[in-house]
């Protein structure tokens, strides 16, 4: 059958205000070698925070909105649409979900598997962007940029920041510990090694033969005790929840800096504030928080406003033009694979009996 006469696959491009519907549509038309009929939907994130919807989390939009948009649709590509059990059970024709993120927490994977729906994701899509912002936070804290920046905005020239007891430190020659060395931590490690740092990594899932030159695989206690800077790069699991507790923060090297651009539940923010205020920590640099939007009345924010060495950004580590393009391309490629009967590049749920 010629492409012109082949039946068209109906696809919903459920974008948002970061990965626009048009970005998904362009990727679909570029990457999928099959006739498509594409409809679009724009969800309100990030102008409106994501949250729990039905049986899924970190979702944008409503179940009713998706049920209506998915009527008669074969496939959906999205970043944050709430693909809950209720939505999936109401979407009788749906066969494929392409979720353009690494952690598909907005997809009810059990319900998708039960209904024979294939789900593909895009692991590592924002790895470089997140790594680069992590390095930005780290460098800002090491060189005490909050104090320098804030003083100039207040009309003060802080010449004292050149005093021996005030100056920051360099990456070169420092010991920097990374908790996790996946798509983000691995890239951070490579850059830090190139900058002359001694890099320690704790990652129980990283095989020793995969450790790059210049990186030392160690246990967490040693990493915490020896590192001038500790940067978190783990996913939130039962094992990593509150991994940097009050006790672990207290065990850090005096004057060390703690960086978190991964997920808020990895650390105890109250303990970090106490350690910073007491002088145990030399700085804190954060892009993520226990709950989001962040509580800007938290003690860490008060300390930042008082001039402490605290660097804060509003969960923007993965926000780059390239991340959006990479994410949209990833799900489009796997929809093409699915329609052509080829193995998926990244499958997180498959119908019973299907191979990867």
TrEMBL record:
<comment type="similarity">
    <text>Belongs to the D-isomer specific 2-hydroxyacid dehydrogenase family.</text>
</comment>
<dbReference type="InterPro" id="IPR006140">
    <property type="entry name" value="D-isomer_DH_NAD-bd"/>
</dbReference>
<keyword id="KW-0560">Oxidoreductase</keyword>
<dbReference type="InterPro" id="IPR036291">
    <property type="entry name" value="NAD(P)-bd_dom_sf"/>
</dbReference>
<keyword id="KW-0520">NAD</keyword>
<feature type="domain" description="D-isomer specific 2-hydroxyacid dehydrogenase NAD-binding">
    <location>
        <begin position="135"/>
        <end position="317"/>
    </location>
</feature>
<dbReference type="InterPro" id="IPR006139">
    <property type="entry name" value="D-isomer_2_OHA_DH_cat_dom"/>
</dbReference>
<dbReference type="Pfam" id="PF00389">
    <property type="entry name" value="2-Hacid_dh"/>
</dbReference>
<dbReference type="InterPro" id="IPR050857">
    <property type="entry name" value="D-2-hydroxyacid_DH"/>
</dbReference>
<dbReference type="Pfam" id="PF02826">
    <property type="entry name" value="2-Hacid_dh_C"/>
</dbReference>
<dbReference type="InterPro" id="IPR029753">
    <property type="entry name" value="D-isomer_DH_CS"/>
</dbReference>
<feature type="domain" description="D-isomer specific 2-hydroxyacid dehydrogenase catalytic">
    <location>
        <begin position="60"/>
        <end position="348"/>
    </location>
</feature>
<protein>
    <submittedName>
        <fullName>2-hydroxyacid dehydrogenase</fullName>
    </submittedName>
</protein>
């Amino acid at each position: 059958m010629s492409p012109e006469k082949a039946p068209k696959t109906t696809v919903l491009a459920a974008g948002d205000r970061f990965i626009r519907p048009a970005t998904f549509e362009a990727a679909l038309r570029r990457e999928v070698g099959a006739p498509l009929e594409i409809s679009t939907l724009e969800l309100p994130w990030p102008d409106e925070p994501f949250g729990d919807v039905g049986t899924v989390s970190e979702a944008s939009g409503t179940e009713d909105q998706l049920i209506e948009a998915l009527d008669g649709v074969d496939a959906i590509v999205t970043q944050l649409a709430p693909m809950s059990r209720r939505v999936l059970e109401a979407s009788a024709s749906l066969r494929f979900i392409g979720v353009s993120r690494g952690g598909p927490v907005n997809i009810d994977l059990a319900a998708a598997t039960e209904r024979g729906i294939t789900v593909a994701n895009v692991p590592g899509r924002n790895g470089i962007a997140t790594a680069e912002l992590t390095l930005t936070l780290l460098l800002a804290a090491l060189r005490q940029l909050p104090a320098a920046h804030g003083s100039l905005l207040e009309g003060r020239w802080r010449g004292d920041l050149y005093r021996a007891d005030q100056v920051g430190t360099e990456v070169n020659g420092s010991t920097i510990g990374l908790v996790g060395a996946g798509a983000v931590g691995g890239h951070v490690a490579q850059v830090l090694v190139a900058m002359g740092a001694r890099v320690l990594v704790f990652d129980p899932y990283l095989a020793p033969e995969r450790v790059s030159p210049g990186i030392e695989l160690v246990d967490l206690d040693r990493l915490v005790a020896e590192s001038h800077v500790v940067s978190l790069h783990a996913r939130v699991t039962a094992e990593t929840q509150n991994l940097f507790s009050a006790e672990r923060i207290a065990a850090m090297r005096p004057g060390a800096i703690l960086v978190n651009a991964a997920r808020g539940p990895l650390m105890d923010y109250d303990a970090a504030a106490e350690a910073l205020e007491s002088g145990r920590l030399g700085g804190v640099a954060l892009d993520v928080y226990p709950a989001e939007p962040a509580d800007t009345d938290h003690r860490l924010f008060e300390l930042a406003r008082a001039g402490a060495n605290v660097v804060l950004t509003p969960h923007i580590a993965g926000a780059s033009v390239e991340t959006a393009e990479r994410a949209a391309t990833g799900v489009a490629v796997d929809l093409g694979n699915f329609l052509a009967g080829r193995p998926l590049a990244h499958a997180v749920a498959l119908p019973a009996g299907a191979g990867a």
